[in-house]
Design brief:
- The chain contains three helices and 24 strands.
- The strands form five sheets. Strands 1-3-4-11-6-9-12 form a seven-stranded mixed β-sheet, with no helix packed on it.
- The structure holds the ligand O=C(O)C(=O)C[C@H](O)C(=O)CO and zinc ion (ZN).
- The site of zinc ion has 4 residues, from loops.
- Belongs to the KduI family.
- It is an enzyme of class 5 (isomerase).
Length: 280
């Protein structure tokens, strides 16, 4: 498991491109038959990618849970949110099988001992993007078809930011301890997400971009509002946004992204909005 230490805003404004990428970019999430895990000390969020071949993959496979998390099993003191962006498959939670078609989500609460990811067809493997955060009580496991997510249309074509925010792990959909998670889809021709932008001092966030055509990129904007930086992201890459950082992006074509947040609250609208005139 890769471990990332937190960066503070005073230091980050001096980072080179390489250093920005080393600190915040998350790559290699979906190599067939492999598992990627990146543990951030920021709110102790773990960003993961599971891409099972003929063999299923366990949540805690090839890791020493006692050494990394200091507990006997992965979800002893954690909760988990998953969205499948690949082909159909299954997630088995303590013996209960959940069919996971593309764009299905699953919340798995603290206390579940065994989570197994599988693809139905190795030629069209499932790609399970997952986030896990510390949790202090058990909530029931819930399967979320995208039609059950809360939908929030946003933006307009004239501003090239028409999109729909699908809120999967949201208090109006299901209960979690601290994890919020969902998927935003850009309309064709719209390329700007989250602009006008915001930060949220009380939560951190991870963005994972996908559905980007080959050779397309997203210029992901981060940094303090008056000290903005960018990181070039390609398809199926993620980026960590500390609480002090804006998180917005402009693609060379339309795309989708999964956002996930942890911190003081699950109030999606609790944002520090930044006026366009204040951006530098
Ligand atoms: O399209 C958007 O705007 C978003 O999806 C915003 C993110 O969900 C976010 O940053 C929530 O804090
Ligand atoms: Zn945000």
């Amino acid at each position: 498991m890769i471990v990332r230490e937190p960066s503070n805003s005073k230091d980050a404004k001096h980072y080179t491109t390489d250093r920005l990428r080393d600190e915040f970019l998350v790559q290699d999430l979906f190599n067939l038959g492999e598992i990627q895990r990146v543990y951030s000390h920021i709110d102790r969020i773990i960003t993961m990618g599971f891409c099972p071949d003929e063999q299923s993959q366990k949540l805690d496979e090839n890791m020493d849970v006692m050494k990394s998390l200091g507990v006997n099993y992965f979800l002893e003191s954690r909760e988990l949110g998953v969205i499948n962006i690949g082909g159909p498959g299954t997630i088995t939670v303590d013996g209960t099988v959940h069919a996971m078609k593309s764009q299905d989500g699953l919340y798995v609460g603290k206390g579940n001992k065994e989570v197994i990811f599988a693809s139905d067809d190795v030629n069209n493997p499932s790609k399970y993007y997952a986030l896990s955060a510390p949790a202090h009580m058990h909530y029931e496991t819930v399967h979320i078809d995208i039609t059950k997510a809360k939908q929030v249309p946003m933006g307009d074509a004239e501003s090239a930011n028409k999109r729909v925010i699908f809120q999967f792990l949201h208090p109006e959909v299901l209960q979690t301890c601290q994890l919020s998670m969902g998927l935003t889809k850009m309309a064709p021709g719209s390329v700007w997400n989250t602009m006008p932008c915001h930060s949220h001092e009380r939560r951190m966030e991870v963005y994972f971009y996908f559905d980007l055509p080959q050779d397309s990129i997203v210029l992901h904007l981060m940094g303090e509002p008056t000290e903005t930086r960018h990181i070039v992201l390609r398809n199926e890459e993620a980026v960590i946004a500390p609480s002090w950082s804006i998180h917005s992006g402009c693609g060379t074509s339309a795309y989708s992204f999964i956002w996930g947040m942890v911190g003081e609250n699950k109030t999606f609208t609790d944002m520090d909005h930044i006026a366009m005139k204040d951006l530098r």
